[in-house]
Amino acid sequence: MLALNGARGGQEPAPPPGVEARRVTFAGTGEQPRREWFLAGTSFAHADAAPAEARRPRIASPVSGSVYALDPDIPRDRQRLAVAVTGAAATHRLRLDARDLGAADSAPLTFPAPGRHQLALVDIAGRTVDRVTFTVR
Prior knowledge:
Elements (H helix, E strand, L loop, with lengths): L1 H4 L13 E9 L6 E6 L6 E3 L9 E4 L5 E2 L12 E2 L1 E3 L6 E4 L2 E5 L5 E2 L4 E8 L5 E9 L1
Parallel strand pairs: 1-3, 5-12
Antiparallel strand pairs: 1-2, 4-7, 6-10, 8-9, 8-11, 11-12
């Protein structure tokens, strides 16, 4: 790598025209501030996540396509699947294979039988706003 820089002695190159660097901080994430590069005129100094009430409700867990294996050494009634929803879901319900699991913000624990399952997040009007499929073996 030192040979690549030759006479420059390891100095970073000048940014291309129209690109600028700026220090960016991140609120509420634990992420350390860092230097980021932006097209001129598009930079910002502070990044903040939208509050939950402003975010679209989504199923965070389980993740679609996941495969869960039951452990024969653990009693079946102790192997439950945690369901998590993010965003403004206070008026939404969860349905597992068309069976109501309750309020979306209640973080239910469920025990689906082996097989393929579909978990749906449904709004107050009965429309599906998010859906995931997963398998239990």
